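Task card 7
Instruction: Convert sequence to structure tokens.
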Amino acid sequence: MYPFNLETLVDDALAQIAVQREAVLPDLRPREIGVVKSLSTGVARVSGLPGVGFEELLQFPGGLFGIAFNVDKDEIGVVLLGNYWHLKAGDEVERTGRVMDVPVGDALIGRVINPLGAALDDQGVLATNQRMPIERSAPAIMDRDPVSVPLQTGIKVIDALVPIGRGQRELILGDRQTGKTSIAIDTILNQHDQNVLCVYCAIGQRASAVAKVIAVLREHDALKYTIIIVTEGNEPPGLAYIAPYAATSIAEYFMHQGRDVLIVYDDLTHHARAYRELSLLLRRPPGREAFPGDIFYLHSRLLERATHLRKELGGGSLTALPVIETEAQNIAAYIPTNLISITDGQLYLSPDLFELGVLPAVDVGKSVSRVGSKAQRKAYQAVAGNLKLAYAQFEELETFARFGTRLDDNTRQIIEHGKRIRACLKQQEHDLVSVTEQIIILIALTEGVFDTVPLTRMQEAEYAVRTATKQMPIAIRTQLLDSNSLNNKDRDMILRIAGNALKLFHQQS
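Output:
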């Protein structure tokens, strides 16, 4: 046995304990805890949190969070963000000291998540540690550049007559089941080689509708550049309320990195209704159509975040395609008029055209792009004006012709030409048309090359012209993509190629 001094050992142990005790820094943080007073559908009333701030995140039992929405003297109205069935009056509520935020980063690309950042696609937890608040200030006016670069949708009637630019806010509105979502999804599909990241935000949609969208994107290999944020119709209204703001923060992260981003809000009708439901449950005074007085601010602060940043700030852009549902073609209702006044134009889908089989059912007369030709290639500009004028004349004369009015030869020619324009602007779902194919079709249309083709064979004739674009010299195709205007020689060559492709149809007419 080795000799040892018990007294020495005790002194050493006491010295070590003293050193460790001095090194301990207690983490003393005040905790402010309140109590649930009552519960309603998607909202709770809480008392006992005198220091809480507006839109502060509060934590409830079971990992449930809520947003402080009404900060009154005696109680707080809280919007609940998730299933709240386990809550009861008397449960404790704790302040978090932060606002609602959402994970951001490259790890989100190709994933399906909810507005809280939880994965819904069974591909594991999101591998990101960056977060951004869902409510952020829109870029200042001096931080923005004009919208000048086109965002090609692959849809002829839109790219030619109602062009959309990167950084624009273009509203898609129409009655239910008129093809609004189809236009948005086709636009996403057309970005596969355009270096545009896409964010699709489903707000209060049916699970079957969301599953169909995901299946289409996966089938066309579009998920590799798309992020999907989903709230279903059976979820609490609080999730539908925060969904578009969370999606916009995710999109803004990539915009500030200098990337071009497209975001689709499908649709803001459900968003406005969810906000109305929350406001009425929190006993805020109702206004027109029972919507609260700040319903305009709800969407304006969201859509103002879409813009084109200056080159000094990276030059990124965020293009917004909000979707809105009208009732009985009433575009003068409260929410549609609000959004029309906020956005930079609208695509109106007519149920009358839809019933006639004119798809996509874009009503050119009621649709407008306030950016216009500034975000359109010069090759389009050379034909778009004449095409829109000819189509407008046709629609007006067609209405008079229905009354059995006797028509002269010139009028009949205008009507027959207009019928070919309408037939050529038809397009099947997911059948996207490239820039070069669109321009050769539009030039052939404006020059009347299609006028001798029977209406019943217009679809075949169009595909023949699209196939003939492969015969175009590479120099002309490059010129079309580089936004240069066409000279007369190039135009004549395009007309000759189109005319040769349509010879067979002329002979069999």
